[in-house]
Amino acid sequence: MTAALPDLAPLAWALLAIAALIVGFSKTAIPGSNTFSIAIFAAVLPARASTGALLLLLIIGDVFALISYRRHADWKTLLKLIPAVVVGVALGAVFLAFANDAWVRRLIGAILLLVIAFTLWQRRKPPAEGGPGSARIARAGYGSLGGFTTMVANAGGPVMSMYFLAARFPVKAFLGTAAWFFAVINLAKVPVSVGLGLITLQSLLLDLLLVPGVIIGALLGRWAASRIPQRSFDWAVIVFTTIGAVYLLL
């Protein structure tokens, strides 16, 4: 088994363990914090390999998120997002077939910064402003970018977090809607990722060692989410997403 594991320094293993803990925490508390785990995996492993390894850990985190918040999802919003997300995932699969690691990191970082800026601008407008047309445009934009970034680098979480913030979802509705959204999307990505060679025996063995970190992080996140005020939750998502986006861009 050890022969199939990547040859990493002790510090690299420690960073991956921290990233696994953040994955669990992001699923049950602060979704934007997942950009740190994306950044760590992309720094320790080749960007394409990190995508496959991280995907399976995200699915484990999705299970804990569903257990905690499955009853709080906004299904109307989820169903309306599906067409745009499917288009984004398809475009992401095509991009991955041709892109190199440097392009993946920089493109995702640039997309996240643009989405953050747009979301902050959106939140400055009164909640009642805008009609069905603007809502459809927002769903199409966020949904397609969310599908693209989740396929390319498992970075759809930050994009969709910005969408849920722009829609002013309460904490539990935010987490419940995100839980179902990413549980479905991440499972759908598995066969595509296998076909692209992103999930391998090596990534499976690596994930097996990191799963305990995801579980611990998810339990800590569930404890924290029940105690965090709405305003603090919103700004934590924005700040963590921004830091991760800048790292990926640089």
From TrEMBL:
This is Probable membrane transporter protein. It comes from the Bacteria. Keywords: Cell membrane, Membrane, Transmembrane, Transmembrane helix, Transport. It is found in: Cell membrane. InterPro entries: TM_pro_TauE-like, TSUP. It holds the Pfam family TauE. PANTHER family: MEMBRANE TRANSPORTER PROTEIN YDHB-RELATED, TRANSMEMBRANE PROTEIN YFCA. It is a multi-pass membrane protein. Belongs to the 4-toluene sulfonate uptake permease (TSUP) (TC 2.A.102) family. The chain crosses the membrane at residues 38-66, 78-97, 103-121, 169-188, 194-220, 232-249. One of its GO terms (cellular component) is plasma membrane. It comes from Leucobacter ruminantium.
